[in-house]
Amino acid sequence: MWRVAAFLSFLILAYLLGFHGSGFLYLIPLFILFNIAMLFITVWEKHKRTETLKEIFNKIKNNDYANSQEIELPSYLGGIQNEIRSMYEKIQDDMDYMKKLEKVRSEFLGNVSHELRTPIFTIQGYIETLLNGAIDDQKVNKQFLEKASRHTNNLNNLLNDLIDISMIESGQMRLSFSYFNAEKYFSSIVNEFIPQAEKKSLRLILHQVAPNLQLFGDKEKIKQVLTNLIQNAIRYTETGGIEIIIEEEEKFGKITINDSGIGIAPEYLDRIFERFFRVNKARSKEAGDSGLGLAIVKHILDAHGTKIEVQSKLNEGTSFSFRLKK
Ligand SMILES: Nc1ncnc2c1ncn2[C@@H]1O[C@H](COP(=O)(O)OP(=O)(O)OP(=O)(O)O)[C@@H](O)[C@H]1O
Ligand SMILES: [Mg+2]
């Protein structure tokens, strides 16, 4: 700024000297003084601007503003007020997001420790009882060992689910997509669950699949999805049965798993996909369910660009469905 002023005054001086000769020479020191004054003013203004900005940035740093509208810049800095306000809003959003992440992370760690504690304490309890003499009691020793072994399996399942979840959430899940014949694929998976269903006297039916229907997905991962959905259906159904329906649509195959089980109350329908969420915690814990199954299902289907839908009526049954590309 002062350079412009100096340049202009130089031009004026040259003009005056040019027209009126050396009679105006006395003006030279005046112009020099004027320029020095301009320089000081500019430096002082710059200093004032920097100090004001420093003060505002310090206030932002110390969280002194309740919201972005409280940031007000003096008129000589007004031009960047909106930029500073939006920067402030962006910082606040990022901080809120980080806080949320931190909360989720610590909740997850808390849940994991809690879930691990149950089987470990139970196994420890059986082993200590056996060591304290029960090992020689023919009536209970085998039973205690079997229970300890069952809880070891639960622990193993929980760890496998945790590994799956952390692989998926850290973006390390590798998918290997291919086309597969729907009829063959679904019937071989459903057949694996017939013994489990028969144990509870439940019907397990796969409805007729269009013979040439080819679907696209990661076969292993989709098997994990179906395993959890069919296992849940068997687990939460006491009478009737489970039917699996594959419908051919224009661009997709729609897979539906219907059961005639206990159903899920409407207020829980959104929550069942949360990690560790179980409607009946006590019952699930006893059975060794981690409550991670549907969270994994959701992640896998997300990675396939599709989503899971659920409909349920208490004491009537539940229906889960998703689509795969043809
Ligand atoms: N078909 C169903 N009928 C009734 N309730 C269900 C059904 N499927 C899931 N749920 C409810 O949703 C909860 C979460 O299911 P999810 O598969 O995530 O966990 P889980 O089956 O309890 O344990 P995991 O699958 O990890 O062994 C279950 O605990 C159950 O309360
Ligand atoms: Mg499950």
How would you portray this structure in words?
The chain has three domains: 2-93, no CATH class; 111-169, Signal transduction histidine kinase, dimerisation/phosphotransfer (DHp) domain (Helix Hairpins); 178-325, 2-Layer Sandwich (Heat Shock Protein 90), CATH 3.30.565.10. The relative contact order is 0.07. The chain has a five-stranded mixed β-sheet with strand order 2-4-5-7-6. The protein has a two-stranded antiparallel sheet with strand order 1-3. The protein is built from nine helices and seven strands. It is elongated and about 125 Å long. The protein has 326 residues and is of the alpha+beta class. It has helices spanning 2-20, 27-61, 81-131, 141-169, 182-192, 194-199, 219-235, 281-287, 293-303, and strands at residues 178-181, 203-206, 214-217, 241-248, 252-259, 309-313, 317-325. The structure holds adenosine-5'-triphosphate and magnesium ion (MG). Magnesium ion (MG) is lined by residues 228, 231-232, 289, 293.
